[in-house]
Amino acid sequence: MKKTVILLSGGIDSSTTLALAKNEGFECYAISFDYKQRHSVELEFAKKVAKHVGVKEHLIVSFDLRKIGGSALTSKIDIPKDIQEGIPVTYVPARNTIFLSFALAWAEVIQAPYIFIGANVVDYSGYPDCRPEYLSAFECMANLATKASVEGAIKFKIQAPLLYLTKSEIIKKGIELGLDYSLTWSCYDPQGEPPKPCLRCPSCIYRLKGFEEIGIKDPLLK
């Protein structure tokens, strides 16, 4: 069975990516990150998704990006309540590079040639580390920087199957695969206890738009 490490935040894109990889016959190793993000509740949903889809192992790595800051997700900057032009304040400096580096290290150890990421360039917030040229560059670096690749044991491949899909297309695909979206979380600014989506941040807006376009109520809100 082919092995893959999958970045799993617990959101729609990463959860659908996991479901796709599982459906394609991969042995899935999910990796999530507790980086002291404002919406750390997503980690509880990532655990639910990992169990629901069925992974070989789910690793949660902890570190503190609040010490660096520079983002509304890791500092006291207010979360925007609309879609911003350009790269928004919810961009976390070098986040996908950090995440993919951890995933690459684990992939080398368990000898998994594939790393899946739910990057998207259609319904997304303009993050530079979601672009195809970035992913291609990281793949090139991965095959220059690891013992396994330099010695010819593994040629790493970065897979982003949702890259050019709209949010509604992603949700449709997940439903076809039996993914339960009530187990996923998208909101950047959780409200109350137990936490509920704010329904106004960019991530909530894209999520609501996706479900509305296919005429389905978001099961997380039922």
Helical fraction equals 25-40%
- Supply the helix-strand structural class: alpha/beta
What does the radius of gyration come to? 17 Å
Total number of helical segments? 7
| Biggest beta sheet summary | 5 strands, parallel
| Unreliable residue stretches | none
Q: CATH architecture, please?
A: 3-Layer(aba) Sandwich
SSE arrangement, N to C: EHEHEHEHHEHH
Indicate the proportion of strand residues: 5-15%
- How many structural domains does the protein architecture include? 1
Shape: globular
- At the fold tier of CATH, the topology name is Rossmann fold
- Report mean pLDDT, rounded to a whole number: 96
Strand order of the largest sheet: 3-2-1-4-5
What's the name of the CATH homologous superfamily?
A: HUPs
CATH level-1 class: Alpha Beta
Write out key terms for the chains shown.
222 residues; alpha/beta; 5-stranded parallel beta sheet; 7 helices; 5 strands; 11% strand
Strand-helix topology:
Layout: E1 3-7, H1 12-23, E2 27-34, H2 42-53, E3 57-62, H3 95-110, E4 114-116, H4 132-145, H5 147-150, E5 157-159, H6 167-176, H7 202-213
Parallel strand pairs: 1-2, 1-4, 2-3, 4-5
Helix pairs in contact: 1-2, 1-6, 6-7
Give a structural overview.
This protein is an alpha/beta fold and 222 residues long. It has one domain (3-221): HUPs (Rossmann fold). Helices cover 36% and strands 11% of the residues. The protein has 7 helices and 5 strands; from the N terminus they run E-H-E-H-E-H-E-H-H-E-H-H. The chain has helices spanning 12-23, 42-53, 95-110, 132-145, 147-150, 167-176, 202-213; strands spanning 3-7, 27-34, 57-62, 114-116, 157-159. Strands 3-2-1-4-5 form a 5-stranded parallel β-sheet, with helices on both faces. Helix 2 links the parallel strand 2 and strand 3. Helix 1 packs parallel to helix 2. The longest helix is centred in the middle third of the chain and has 16 residues, at 95-110. The chain is globular and about 50 Å long.
